[in-house]
Write a structure and sequence with these properties.
seven-stranded parallel beta sheet, alpha/beta, about 800 residues, ATP binding, DNA translocase activity, Rossmann fold
């Protein structure tokens, strides 16, 4: 074991440290017995012969009492031979006549080695013929798995109990999740052995997975059978590999389980496949393709966990093919967003975890995908809507056998409250002029006239950047930038001073005011998220000009440095790192940024899942402060139109993957609506909602008439004749027609077969002009009411500034 120095007597019960191990002296034995080795042969060894008394006293060595132990006096030339295992009994000068009688416990000496256990270890007692579970199922809060209904002949069933080391940390929804996954992989819920865990972000999918793997690796419901799983493979984005390794260490320590991380420096996969030291292998999706052949060797893989499984989008996905080549039946997909955005991808995910459960792809497309997609088209008939809804419910019913989905609402009692603000920023004059100039270009006319969707997508990208700042158009760092030919034609339409300055960005002005208030009135920190690195560059310049310290994570940061960057931000104070600039595509998933309690989504994405992932970075386990979430939109611009489509679930996001849409994604009318800058003083989103609150606070549920909500008509009333009359308005002189109102009404009717904006009735609707209106006699009372609704003192001060660019606010609080 090793060597150590000891300055005190080694008596039975004494402890010391040797070679990093704590050693306790059990008993003493004679030197002769030690040298004979009988005690090390086990219980079958012959009994030791009696030890004769020494014929002569040991006078060569004398021992004197000393404050630090025993002092040895020996004659010159004497040789001292000692052994801590020889059990030599020491005597002092005062009792020299005491005979040498080493203490001996023959029974203890003959005992075999016994595995040491903690005092808290519970050893089940009972009839040895009755199977005993690994952990006591009778303990309080014991998490017991479901027993199998089919048992091999001659075998007995034993309780499978999750290790109390983990189960004591599991919340109620996590206990249910572990039980659900266990039943799925054991084939108790459906014909397959796969599962999809589609819990929202922050619900602890990683911990639930670790609890499942640890249970499967140590237990089996069939008594006297080996564990269900010997080798497990966790596949995840490269940026989350280190996070998974830390989670295993956090919950199971370093000694209980061996975790092998496959990366560029550690490619010897045989250590995992053929060795016994590692039970779990963590690998990134890209690295998986490199090592897939080596994974087939050795003992093989018993279960595969695909984290952020929505990356397995198509049947020809290389990572998916690599996993399928392992011939592992137990497969689990973890995804923070439901896999419902694209039914073809949804089928691929289902067929991945449970092959053949939904039949062949052509049959699925005919019976489910086509009717459901058709029902979400703008011109769908009532019959198509009814059929699509019925097919969707049936699909949900089928997949509920192996897919579990919980929302963030279950965390409301564990996490601090959060408040979400939809901030409508009025474009600056320069921004509006540049926006109109771009819309008047021949390219937009051509996109509308010929329905050239490739050109339309490029123009949509231009308008998205225009909403952030016109100055971003001259940058060419982002991969989504339009071709240089189009830029060369459009840039001359914008005055050079606007292209050179970020000051014309309405979002940046609002952000400037918000940062100033947060930094000077609180000790909180903030995360700022964007889909574009050029936008992050612009925000970085703002922070530098204000002398605010910040950290940044985008695609240029190596995956090995990302987690240390996150940890640095979480453990430092506001003066050291006030802001964290985050690329939505590089760090939108998996990161825990609880060091901040406020987050700004500077721009919006077609796919609502991208925004939801980013918003969940701060409202997670470990957060101590109330969270404030700000989503910036340009009022009347493309931002607001995209947000409307997110909320209404029109299906446009279904066809948009990585900001690329199919040719059938947009109709001509939809493009015309997208390519329109609404410069009215009212909020278009609120107008479409048809709410009568006047943007003065929280709406009442009866503010929207059910018949109006169903037809998309703005007229409030129950009389069917009134609705028919309103559908065909009487002729009026052109000078008396309100064209803006007519356009709004027509746009509303165009949505009459789509899911409505009813979810926005959960928000408070606020026109910020009321906060700046000094002529209101009831201003004091109104301000108090608004403050209760907004639930954010910092934002209230920003909204009260005379030159505030925020026109309208939708706010919702969980407090």
């Amino acid at each position: 074991m090793g060597k150590t120095a000891c300055a005190r007597p080694l008596l039975p019960g004494s402890t010391l440290s040797i070679g990093g191990k704590d050693v306790e002296v059990d008993a003493s034995m004679s030197k002769e017995e030690f040298l004979s080795g009988r005690a090390f042969l086990g219980a079958t060894a012959a009994k030791p012969v009696p030890i004769p008394k020494p014929t002569a006293p040991i006078n060569d060595i004398k021992f004197k009492k000393h404050s630090s132990g025993l002092k040895i006096d020996s004659k010159p030339g004497a040789i001292l031979k000692t052994s801590d295992r020889a059990g030599v009994a020491l005597r002092d000068e005062e009792n020299e006549d005491t005979p040498f009688r080493p203490e001996l416990k023959p029974k203890a000496a003959r005992m075999q080695f016994k595995t040491p256990m903690l005092n808290s270890t519970v050893v089940p007692k009972g009839n040895p013929s009755i199977p005993q579970p690994r952990h006591d199922p009778t303990l309080p809060n014991a998490l017991i798995m479901k027993k199998p209904t089919i048992v091999p002949k001659g075998k007995q069933v034993v309780d499978v109990v999750v290790d109390p080391l983990l189960s004591k940390h599991l919340r109620e929804h996590q206990r249910e999740g572990v039980q659900f996954l266990y039943e799925c992989v054991m084939g108790m819920r459906c014909e397959g052995e796969g599962a999809i865990m589609a819990d929202e972000m922050g619900l602890g999918k990683t911990l639930q997975t670790i609890a499942l793997l640890w249970t499967l690796m140590k237990q089996n419901p069939i008594h006297d059978s080996p564990p269900v799983v010997r080798k497990a493979l966790v596949v995840c984005p490269a940026g989350l590999v280190e996070n998974w390794r830390r989670e295993f260490r956090k919950w199971l320590g370093n000694e209980r389980i061996g975790v092998f991380v496959a990366d560029a420096k550690n490619k010897k996969i045989t250590n995992f496949t053929k060795g016994k030291a590692y039970n779990v292998m963590i690998v990134g999706y890209e690295m998986l393709r490199v090592v897939q052949e080596d994974l087939k060797k050795g003992h093989g893989v018993d279960i595969v966990i695909a984290d952020e499984g929505h990356r397995l989008k198509t049947a020809n996905n290389k990572a998916m093919l690599a996993i399928q080549s392992l011939n592992t039946e137990r497969r689990i997909i973890l995804s923070g967003t439901p896999l419902q955005n694209d039914l073809s991808e949804f089928y691929t995910a289902i067929d991945f975890v449970n092959p053949g459960l939904l039949g062949k792809r052509p049959a699925f497309k005919r019976e489910f995908e086509v009717p459901i997609v058709r029902s979400r088209q703008p011109n769908a008939s009532e019959a198509e809507l009814e059929k699509g809804e019925a097919r969707w419910k049936e699909l949900v019913n089928l997949t509920s056998q192996f897919m579990i989905r919980r929302t963030a609402e279950v965390l409301s009692k564990y996490l601090p409250p959060k408040t979400e603000h939809i901030v409508f920023c009025k474009p600056t004059t320069a921004q509006s002029n540049a926006y109109r100039s771009i819309l008047a270009s021949p390219y937009f006319t051509a996109a509308l006239g010929n329905a050239n969707n490739e050109m339309a997508l490029q123009l949509i990208t231009i308008l998205k950047k225009m909403c952030n700042s016109p100055s971003l158009l001259k940058s060419s760092k982002d991969g989504e930038d339009t071709p240089s030919e189009m830029l060369q034609s459009l840039l001359p339409l914008i005055p050079p001073p606007i292209l050179r300055s970020h000051a014309c960005s309405t979002k940046l002005r609002v952000l400037d005011s918000l940062l100033h208030r947060i930094f000077n009135t609180t000790k909180e920190k903030i995360v700022i998220v964007s889909n574009y690195t050029t936008t992050l560059d612009m925000i970085e310049q703002l922070l530098t000009s204000l002398s605010y310290k910040y950290l940044r994570l985008d695609g240029s940061i190596p995956s090995s440095k990302r987690q240390p960057l996150v940890e640095k931000f979480n453990r430092t104070d506001q003066r050291t790192a006030f802001a964290f600039l985050l690329s939505a595509k590089s760090g939108g998933v998996g990161l825990n940024l609880i060091g901040a309690s406020r987050i700004v989504l500077f721009d919006i994405d077609w796919n609502p899942a991208t925004d939801l992932q980013a918003m969940a970075r701060i409202h997670r386990d470990g957060q101590k402060l109330p969270c404030k979430i700000y989503r910036f939109l340009v009022q009347g611009g493309l931002d607001e139109k995209i947000y409307q489509r997110q909320v209404m679930k029109m299906g446009l996001a279904n066809a948009v993957v990585d900001n690329k849409a199919s040719a059938s994604s947009f109709s001509r009318e939809e493009l015309r609506d997208l390519f329109r800058l609404d410069e009215r003083e009212t909020c278009q989103t609120h107008d479409l909602l048809g709410c009568k609150c006047g943007m003065k606070g929280a709406p009442e549920l009866d503010d929207i008439d059910e018949s109006s909500a169903d037809t998309g008509d703005m007229t409030i009333g129950d009389d069917e004749d009134e609705e028919d009359d309103d559908a065909f308005p009487v002729l009026q002189p052109a000078s008396k027609v309100d064209m803006a109102a007519q356009e709004a009404k027509i746009a509303q009717r165009a949505q009459n077969k789509q899911p409505k904006l009813k979810m926005l009735m959960e928000y408070a609707h606020i026109n910020t002009e009321y906060l700046r209106d000094t002529t209101n006699p009831d201003k004091s009372q109104d301000d108090d009411d608004m403050a209760l609704l907004v639930d954010d003192d910092v934002l209230l001060e920003v909204l009260r500034e005379p030159d505030c660019r925020v026109g309208f606010l939708l706010t919702k609080s969980s407090s």
